[in-house]
Design brief:
The chain contains nine helices and eleven strands. The chain is an alpha+beta fold and about 325 residues long. A hairpin with a 4-residue loop joins β7 and β8. The radius of gyration is 24 Å and the shape is globular. About 30% of the residues are buried.
Length: about 325
């Protein structure tokens, strides 16, 4: 039903554009016949508005991957560097949540591992909305921060790293066939904040997929059932990612080397000192408005990435 609704919206949008173009064409024809230039400014304004709308639609048309229309699961991992990187991971977590809010997407924090002094060691966020994965897949990789450290008494300049993983939410019945015998479920007491209930009951869940060795934990909810459902969603997304990577590896044998999003292969740098600049190293798109970017304004980076992948079947 969600797919049908999206298709209906798309058809309505293109029919509306078609009517606007026909109306403009009729006005131009009438103006030519009557040699009337009074419509010139209005016609130009309408054409400019249509051109802007086409630019926006161009981005939507680039979201044509098999999983692009799905919800996404975002995994954040602080890199080496202790408190510095853990604080950076939390800054990125806020950035993505603010981005989702701007798009009116729904976010749900599935799991968080707090940092030792500040920030987070890791987090798992579910982001629900049309084409959430298609947009966020551009963020998969290592993000690098350069700034004056707020945790250093000398305020020295530090470089921090965080790894972002973006997974398409799996549709269990159609994407994967998993035997219940392949899944081991353990429960334990939550170790994070959450009040007496979470501390006294075994509400946290750990799920192990025996054949692959994948382990997923979730302890953010008070209910064991809710944590189990969240952990299963993450597990299915992880297994779908493994399946996608396996197929990409097969294609890579034919197409050539594939660059993984590993440490040292940062996709984007956020420099707050000695100057202000956010630069994507894949597309060369950059901006000096670091405050806006860290507040969730990352659409231009996403759009630049999508345009750069035109013609790439792996996009």
């Amino acid at each position: 039903m969600r797919q049908i609704g999206a298709l209906k919206d798309s058809i309505t949008l293109w029919r509306t554009i078609e009517k606007k173009i026909t109306d403009i064409d009729d006005v131009i024809s009438l103006a030519i016949v009557e040699n009337d230039e009074s419509f010139k400014e209005d016609i130009q304004n309408e054409i400019n508005a249509l051109a802007k709308q086409f630019d926006d639609l161009e981005i939507q048309l680039l979201l044509n991957g098999p999983y692009d229309s799905r919800d996404a699961i975002l995994a954040l991992h602080a890199g080496a560097g202790g408190t510095e990187s853990q604080d950076w991971a939390q800054m990125l977590m806020r950035m993505f949540i603010r981005w989702a809010e701007r798009r009116k997407y729904h976010t749900d924090v599935l799991d968080v591992s707090p940092g030792d002094e500040a920030g987070i060691k890791s987090a798992m966020i579910e982001i629900k909305g049309n084409f959430a994965y298609g947009n966020l897949k551009s963020e998969h990789g290592v993000h690098r921060l350069v700034r004056l450290s707020p945790f250093d008494a000398d305020h020295a300049r530090h470089t921090s790293f965080a790894l972002i993983e973006v997974l398409p939410e799996a549709e269990a019945k159609s994407d994967l066939q998993i035997s219940p015998d392949d899944i081991k479920i353990d429960t334990f007491r939550s170790s994070g904040p959450g009040g007496q209930h979470m501390q006294k009951t075994s509400s946290a869940v750990r799920i192990t997929h025996v054949p692959s060795g994948l382990i997923v934990t979730c302890q953010s909810e008070r209910s064991q059932h809710q944590n189990k459902e969240s952990a299963l969603r993450v597990l299915y997304a992880r297994l779908l990612e493994l399946d996608i990577e396996k197929r990409e590896a097969e294609r890579a044998k034919i197409k050539g080397k594939r660059i993984d999003a590993g440490w040292g292969n940062q996709i984007r740098s956020y420099v707050l000192h000695p100057y202000k600049m956010v630069k994507d190293h894949r597309t060369e798109y950059e901006t000096s408005n670091t405050t806006a970017v860290l507040d969730g304004e990352i659409d231009e980076f996403i759009n630049a990435y999508l345009r750069s992948k035109v013609g790439d079947e792996k996009s």
